[in-house]
Design a protein that fits this description.
mainly alpha; 14 helices
């Protein structure tokens, strides 16, 4: 019990930031227009993709460039199913099947990687190749012969006119979809924080810190990594499904190497071992990117320069370091 109280005390500042962030985000529709709310919904979808990076890399130490590929697989699967069956009332079923397909792909890939003894940077290289292969293949499906369930894949143009999210007879609009995303991000935060302080979470941390020692302690590290990689793929696929529901389209660009690299860089720059840091930095980056792009600035160049500075000066990440320093000041004041 004392250990739990001490842990809560050490994380209270992060939880306070998370709560304040939630309140601020919930108030967005009351002081901005519907267009800004719709744009912010996209930022929250990117945050879910960032959460998948945090789950596999920040907690379990699995470095992957494949999350955008799983996002694309989930998005394309959802789009094909929804366009083929054309029954909006079964959107949740299509989403579940799409996520299951992405999880299956992640599980198969993870099985061959981790049971084959591949780890660390080589996982990043393999997932990078998978991402490039997925985008290259989907970009070459412009011909009428490229169809799944009678739905043409469209090549670089992708799939358009994807039905929006409908649950029962209720079709989500821009405002309700925004609140759904807020709830999902908050739910992911709470669930992952709970998992981190359970046996499974401690096992993930153990594998991240030292796989050999974990194996000597009796953990099946390969099995654990496959499970984590599969769950991470499922979270990314959910982001793909929500992306389709938000924009009503999906293209091969959604699973490009660029789309896979940006979330990894944002997680590293914000602080890959702090969930709230990953979420906040991801959202703030896209807000700043949207503003700078409209002003004609090169946001990717700025992001690259920022990452170099972070690696040299703040290796734990910008937001993670700030939170850690403020938490330390509070503890000193209490002492």
């Amino acid at each position: 019990m004392m250990h739990a109280k001490e842990r809560l005390k050490n994380n209270v500042f992060e939880y306070a930031i998370a709560l304040i962030t939630l309140v601020v985000v919930l108030l967005i529709p009351f002081y901005t227009g519907l267009y800004q709310v719709n744009v912010f919904t996209y930022y929250l979808i990117c945050a879910i993709l960032g959460i998948s990076i945090y789950f596999i890399w920040g907690i379990a130490g699995i470095f992957s460039f494949g999350q955008a590929a799983f996002m694309g697989i989930g998005g394309y699967a959802y789009a094909i199913l929804s366009k083929h069956f054309d029954d909006p009332s079964k959107c949740l079923l299509y989403a579940a099947v799409a996520i299951a397909i992405a999880c299956a792909v992640a599980a198969i890939l993870g099985y061959f990687m981790f049971y084959g003894g591949i780890n660390d940077v080589f996982v990043g290289l393999i997932t990078m190749c998978v991402t490039i292969s997925c985008q290259t293949f989907m970009s070459q499906t412009a011909g009428s012969q490229w169809q799944i369930l009678g739905v043409a894949l469209g090549g670089d143009n992708g799939l358009n006119d994807i039905p929006g999210l409908t649950i029962g007879y209720y079709r989500f609009n821009e405002l309700s979809l925004f609140f759904l995303l807020v709830i999902l991000v908050a739910a992911f935060y709470i669930v992952i924080k709970i998992v981190e302080h359970r046996k499974f979470g401690y096992a993930m941390l153990s594998v991240r810190e030292n796989r050999t020692r974990s194996e000597l302690l009796g953990y099946d590290t390969a099995k654990l990594q496959v499970i984590v990689f599969t769950i991470g793929g499922g979270i990314a696929a959910l982001a793909g499904v929500l992306y389709c529901c938000w924009g009503y389209y999906i293209t091969p660009a959604s699973m490009s190497l660029k789309a896979s690299t940006i979330p990894v860089v944002l997680a590293a720059a914000g602080g890959k071992r702090s969930l709230i840091s990953v979420i906040l930095f991801t959202v703030l980056y896209y807000i700043l990117s949207n503003y700078l792009t409209s002003a004609g600035a090169d946001t990717l160049l700025m992001l690259g320069a920022l990452l170099i500075v972070v690696i040299l000066v703040l290796p734990q990440g910008i937001f993670a370091t700030i939170i850690q320093k403020l938490q330390g000041l509070i503890q000193k004041a209490e002492a």
